[in-house]
Amino acid sequence: DAKTTQPPSMDCAEGRAANLPCNHSTISGNEYVYWYRQIHSQGPQYIIHGLKNNETNEMASLIITEDRKSSTLILPHATLRDTAVYYCIVSGSRLTFGEGTQLTVNP
Amino acid sequence: GAVVSQHPSRVICKSGTSVKIECRSLDFQATTMFWYRQFPKQSLMLMATSNEGSKATYEQGVEKDKFLINHASLTLSTLTVTSAHPEDSSFYICSARVPNAGGRDTQYFGPGTRLTVL
User: Fold this and answer.
1) In the β-sheet with B19-25, what is the strand arrangement from edge to edge?
2) Are A36 and B109 an interchain contact pair (Cβ–Cβ within 8 Å)?
3) In terms of DSSP bridges, do strands B113-117 and B10-13 run parallel, antiparallel, or are they unpaired?
4) Which H or E run includes B48?
5) CB contact under 8 A, A51 and B103
6) Which residues have a Cβ under 8 Å from the Cβ of B83 and sit 6 or more positions away?
7) A37, A46, A85, A96: best to mutate for the B interface, most B CBs within 10 A
8) CB-CB: which of B1, B104, B110 is closest to A43?
9) To 5 degrees, how large is the angle CA B75–CA B76–CA B79?
10) Residue range A64-98, pLDDT digits in tens
11) Nearest-CA residue of chain A relative to B98?
12) Do A95 and B46 touch (CB under 8 A)?
């Protein structure tokens, strides 16, 4: 599975959009990009995934660059409950978690 | 999304005893489940892949005789930590794979089990 690089931490104001970047320059053609988040002492929560097209669901949007070497998870209107560690994972078959990005949403 | 439950949510046991953790898929059938372990301030580490009706596949460095995995039905996988010691104290999390029509399978995670070995 391809390795991903994420900033260790980010801050965002409540109500503003949170844009979380992820680099995955070694991604191969059949690997998907997954995003999960983990709120303290809970199991990870699935957010979204995509292959090459941009994706949107009720939680977030996923923007994948044309060369697929990077992606951005967008939380359009962050709330305090979005404070969590966000994991970007590139996977062919199983999920390998990196260190993720600690997103802190501030009032 | 699909719902995965774990039981118990937390357990405290004495050193040398065995502890069983259950992972259930509540509204779908899962031929494949995964077991992870997470130490404080660290990320999740995959321990093993549990396949219904066959032996689990363990990651390098995970002792299969210590962490017994049974996946006897399409909705239940169990992890038994045998002869637990304080260093086994951790947050154990399971996940289940949900096949997606026309796209990559998605994994949904349970809420985790906090194991403390005294």
Assistant:
1) B4-7, B19-25, B76-81, B67-73
2) yes
3) parallel
4) strand B45-51
5) yes
6) B16, B17, B18, B66
7) A46
8) B110
9) 155
10) 999 999 999 999 999 999 999 999 999 877 788 99
11) A46
12) yes
Distance CA A28, CA A24 (A): 9
Q: From the list B6, B46, B109, which residue is nearest A44 (CB)?
A: B109
Cα distance between residue A11 and residue A106, in whole Å: 7
**The two three-digit tokens of residue B38, written as one number:** 């997470």
Of the candidates B43, B106, B112, which has its C-beta nearest A97's C-beta?
B43
Is B110 within 8 Å of chain A by CB?
A: yes
Q: How far is the C-alpha of B59 from the C-alpha of A81, rounded, in Å?
A: 34
Cβ distance of B6 and A49 shorter than 8 Å: no
Beta bridge partners of A37: A45, A86
SS3 state at B98: strand
- Mean pLDDT within B91-105: 82
Q: Which residues of A touch B114 (CB under 8 A)?
A: 41
- Cβ atoms of B95 and B5 closer than 8 Å: no
* CA dist., res. A104 & res. B16, Å (int): 40
**pLDDT bucket at B95, cuts 50 / 70 / 90:** very high
